[in-house]
Amino acid sequence: MTIFAEIIAGRAPASRVYEDDDVLAFMDIRPFTPGHLLVIPKVPASSLAELDPAIGGRLFQVGQLLAAALRESEVGCDGVNFFLADGVTAGQEVFHVHLHVIPRKAGDGFGL
Ligand code: 5GP
């Protein structure tokens, strides 16, 4: 069981920003930039190969909504990166698929 499964179950804390039957989004505990969010499927999938493509579509759809919301929020970003690490070689650390939604501002010093 991963920490994200614990968050879904409510056994670990997280700052939740969006939730529906399929997807949960919450603040990253170590944000790359202020407002950095993670969007995860509620049904655990450790890798893209295990992820139901329909749920993958929902991750992107929710990420798209959150990106628009971030642009309107006090975060005040003028750009957004989506990022997904699949596998150790790609930098994946938590083996429950997650889409990073990373607000960007000119001069924020973050390089992806
Ligand atoms: P990865 O490297 O697997 O793509 O990213 C994992 C992300 O999960 C990292 O950005 C890390 O900060 C975040 N993370 C790890 N543990 C926790 C946690 O317990 N709570 C939250 N909110 N984020 C976490």
Automatic annotation (TrEMBL):
Domain named HIT: which ranges?
Answer: 3-111
Q: Where is this motif: Histidine triad motif?
A: 96-100
What are the catalytic residues?
H98
* UniProt-recorded Gene Ontology molecular function terms: catalytic activity
> What GO terms describe the biological role, i.e. biological process, of this protein?
nucleotide metabolic process
Its recorded name reads: HIT family protein
Shown stretch of the complete protein: 1 to 112 of 142
